[in-house]
Structure to design on (871 residues):
């Protein structure tokens, strides 16, 4: 733990160093969320019923902004770093050091996650709560819900980075991973519910999602935040996240072992 | 004059950085700036065909000066003229007159075969077919480019790459050639080849060469004149010979000794009639090595040896000429005499 | 004239080299193509999902939105194909000092930047755009006559120039802040939102994407001209003016930026 802490704090410092970029980034990234907010508003305006995919318009607004808060914390692309390290030949270097490569990446991602949570995550979140209370006339979120959300979002983060680590292993087999990363991002933003609530997919697609880890990455914590899960459902949702973490951790270990064996044989 | 640099200065402004994680947070809200003067009021002029060594320690401002002369950076104050052109105002015109080699970074197209890089450069510098043929013939002879002419640049060894870069910088027959550490990381044979090539180019085309280097060998072999800068200021400008005359009289004798005795030794110098400012002794306890630095015009090696040997057992002796490097170091330390 | 010819000749040499390079790495090329194709495909899937819930969006049908989407890909793809190297200025060339090498050559800096690279990935966008365009033509929702056909090409070119201008502007900020990648990235991503009819947005936002970072002029606005007979061809005229003005601004900022370029090592 002590060994890996610097990975997190270095990343945090690195992020903060780009001060000028930071303020504008904050502004424009929020601007993007506002636009999708208007898109949904128009959709609700043109729809015949007040709920779409089980969400009211108010809930959809919360969905849009909480998806932003959650995915900005969760979607930290380890695969970018892995492919960078592979290109520079740094992975073999890492094998010599008495640290676990995957752990160092996860801690680094943790640093970035913390940064993104502080800036702008928390501010958007608080802003949303005030908007909800004063403009939409809804009660503030319950403390227990916040706890459940944070717990779920942390697991989402782990789930995402563990998955992304496995994905990053592709970098060992092709020199041009950029296209794959793009395809991944596009597909995931869809499957995680970042682009559109999963409840709007056709029934057969939703059935398939039950067996995939992706809904657990963004959709689950946001639905928890919206209070869409009752007691047993909540436990089930959190449990499912946990199981996916274990499975992806195991998968990552297997793949990593294969890759390092190859690395030792071929050099890298 | 080929190059005229007058009162040129360059400062860089950067936001203040604070240490640690707390510092990083503080930095987010701070607007404090630090101004650093990389080059501070430097002037010199260089004649056509001269080879000038531009030396100084890391961060002294060498590269910054070169970058201003090539038009990459614009000076904060002052100006320079290269072949009558102000590189800052007429970048493109100046670029036609100059060739640049940065030892650390190639100007060539990484993934293309070297031959293609030359084809592109021919177009960029608008070199006509006859000139191109003549120049390539010369460059091939001096730099032996044909060995690797068809290979992609990324597959070249450092020495080959440097030859290729030098050739690329010379294709359009520039009036001035800037070389920023051209021999860094090269082995002795390649270094020698590169130096020979530079000499030959200078002789044949009267190319003015400005060279920054940490390799004193480059300077001793190539430069008739050197300019030394330190902390952005010019501290020496003159011939290499003059510098050597001023500082080069120093020599060092290193002796591995037993039963070292400082007191006895001090008495000895007195009996020899040597003044204290003419020598400097240093004793390394671990290695048992006694080094005496002295002025060769005032003391002779045998005198020192006899003196020391009369007092203690000497196992091994080594005599060193003072290196130009030491001279430069000495100048950084105590300024110019 | 002579200079112009020289630039053309050089561009041809550089591009030929680049194409040779692509031919040597077909797998990378296909992967990149696939990546972009996939991203575009997701955009269409999103539209389908939205239209499962509503029959039309403020009077626009799914077919029409798909045309707008496809139309938007074409100028985007052209710009992407030709000027992708601008991204590198934003992300690292200024910081690392790699921009030095352009400064050392007796040619226009902007030309050197864009001539260094063609981005074959862009063919993914052009492919999607082309396919959607063909589908829309088959469905008969697009107006086809002489004026519209000529203005189609004009609009696509002006749109590509708007893209280039926005990229160049934000990339040039790196001369002040060293890395302007995040700015460029966010600005560039805003293009996605001009793929929907802009009347759905609040006035202020509509103003921004129409006049400040005018992606509306690359996608939705000209596309509506090809869909609806009542839209005046003047919209294409304004698009062209926007393109020229914007590019001029970006080019001036770029030029000022290169003068205060600090290289690396300080």
């Amino acid at each position: 733990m002590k060994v890996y802490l610097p990975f997190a704090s270095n990343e945090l410092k690195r992020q903060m160093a780009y001060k000028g970029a930071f303020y504008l980034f904050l502004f424009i990234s929020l601007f993007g969320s506002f636009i999708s907010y208007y898109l949904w508003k128009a959709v609700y305006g043109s729809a015949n019923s007040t709920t779409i995919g089980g969400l009211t318009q108010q809930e959809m607004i919360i969905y849009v902004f909480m998806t932003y808060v959650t995915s900005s914390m969760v979607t930290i692309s380890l695969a970018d770093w892995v492919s960078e390290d592979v290109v520079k030949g740094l992975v073999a270097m890492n094998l010599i050091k008495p640290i676990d490569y995957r752990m160092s990446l996860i801690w680094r991602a943790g640093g970035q996650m913390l940064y993104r949570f502080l800036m702008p995550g928390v501010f958007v979140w608080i802003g949303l709560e005030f908007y909800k209370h004063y403009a939409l006339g809804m009660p503030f979120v319950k403390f227990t819900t916040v706890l459940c959300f944070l717990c779920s979002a942390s697991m989402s983060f782990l789930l995402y980075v563990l998955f992304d680590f496995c994905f990053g292993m592709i970098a060992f087999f092709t020199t041009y991973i950029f296209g794959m990363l793009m395809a991944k991002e596009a597909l995931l933003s869809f499957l995680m519910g970042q682009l559109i609530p999963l409840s709007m997919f056709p029934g057969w697609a939703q059935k398939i999602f039950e067996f995939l880890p992706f809904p657990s990455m963004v959709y689950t914590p946001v639905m928890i935040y919206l209070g869409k899960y009752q007691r047993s459902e909540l436990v089930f949702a959190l449990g499912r996240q946990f199981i996916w973490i274990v499975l992806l951790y195991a998968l990552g270990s297997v793949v990593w072992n294969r890759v390092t064996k190859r690395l030792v044989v071929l050099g890298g | 004059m080929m190059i005229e640099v007058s009162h040129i200065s360059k400062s860089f402004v950067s936001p203040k950085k604070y240490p640690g994680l707390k510092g990083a947070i503080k930095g987010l809200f701070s607007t404090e700036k630090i101004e650093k003067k990389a080059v501070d009021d430097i002037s010199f002029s260089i004649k056509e065909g001269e080879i000038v060594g531009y030396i100084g320690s890391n961060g002294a401002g060498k590269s910054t000066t070169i970058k201003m002369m090539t038009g990459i950076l614009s000076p904060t104050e002052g100006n320079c003229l290269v072949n009558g052109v102000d590189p800052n105002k007429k970048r493109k015109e100046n670029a036609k007159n100059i060739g640049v080699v940065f030892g650390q970074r190639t100007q060539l197209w990484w993934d293309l075969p070297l031959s293609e890089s030359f084809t592109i450069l021919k177009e960029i510098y608008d070199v006509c077919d006859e000139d191109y043929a003549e120049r390539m013939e010369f460059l091939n002879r001096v730099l032996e480019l044909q060995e690797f002419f068809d290979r992609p640049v990324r597959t070249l060894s450092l020495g080959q790459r440097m030859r290729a870069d030098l050739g690329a910088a010379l294709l359009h027959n520039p009036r001035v050639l800037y070389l920023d550490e051209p021999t860094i990381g090269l082995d002795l044979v390649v270094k020698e080849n590169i130096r020979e090539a530079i000499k030959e180019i200078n002789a044949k085309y009267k190319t003015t060469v400005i060279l920054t280097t940490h390799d004193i060998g480059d300077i001793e072999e190539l430069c008739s004149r050197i300019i030394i800068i330190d902390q952005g200021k010019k501290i020496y400008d003159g011939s290499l010979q003059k510098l050597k005359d001023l500082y080069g009289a120093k020599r060092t004798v290193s002796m591995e000794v037993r039963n070292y005795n400082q007191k006895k030794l001090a008495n000895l110098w007195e009996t020899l009639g040597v003044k204290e400012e003419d020598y400097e002794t240093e004793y390394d306890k671990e290695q048992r090595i006694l080094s005496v630095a002295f002025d060769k015009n005032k003391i002779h090696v045998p005198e020192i040896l006899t003196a020391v040997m009369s007092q203690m057992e000497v196992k091994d002796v080594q005599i060193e000429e003072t290196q130009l490097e030491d001279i430069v170091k000495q100048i950084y330390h105590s300024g110019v005499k | 004239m002579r200079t112009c010819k020289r630039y053309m000749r050089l561009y041809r040499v550089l591009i030929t080299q680049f194409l040779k390079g692509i031919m040597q790495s077909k797998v990378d090329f296909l992967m990149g193509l696939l990546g972009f194709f996939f991203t575009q495909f997701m955009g269409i899937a999103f539209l389908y999902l939205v239209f499962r819930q509503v029959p039309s969006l403020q009077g626009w049908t799914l077919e029409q939105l798909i045309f707008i989407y496809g139309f938007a890909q074409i100028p985007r793809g052209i710009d992407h194909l030709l000027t992708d190297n601008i991204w590198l200025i934003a992300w690292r060339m200024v910081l690392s000092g790699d921009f030095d090498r352009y400064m050392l050559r007796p040619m226009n800096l902007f030309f050197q930047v864009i001539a260094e690279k063609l981005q074959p990935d862009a063919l993914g966008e052009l492919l999607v755009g082309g396919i959607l365009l063909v589908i829309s033509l088959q469905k008969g929702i697009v107006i086809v006559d002489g004026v519209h056909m000529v203005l189609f090409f004009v609009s696509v070119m002006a749109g590509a120039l708007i893209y280039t201008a926005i990229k160049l502007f934000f990339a040039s900020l790196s001369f002040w802040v060293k890395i302007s990648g995040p700015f460029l990235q966010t600005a560039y991503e805003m293009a996605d939102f001009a793929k929907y009819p802009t009347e759905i947005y609040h006035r202020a936002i509509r103003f921004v994407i129409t006049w400040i970072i005018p992606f509306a002029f690359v996608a939705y606005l000209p596309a509506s001209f090809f869909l609806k007979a009542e839209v005046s061809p003047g919209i294409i005229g304004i698009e062209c003016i926007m393109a020229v003005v914007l590019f001029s601004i970006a080019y001036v900022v770029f030029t000022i930026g290169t003068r205060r370029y600090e290289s690396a090592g300080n």
Notes: The CA atoms of residues 25 and 44 of chain C lie 29 Å apart. The interface with chain A takes residues 25, 27-28, 31-36, 38-39, 41-42, 45-46, 49-50, 52-58, 121, 176-177, 179-183, 186-187, 189-190, 193, 196, 200-202, 205, 208-209 of chain C (CB under 8 Å). Chain C has 13 helices and no strands. The longest helix of chain C spans residues 26-53.
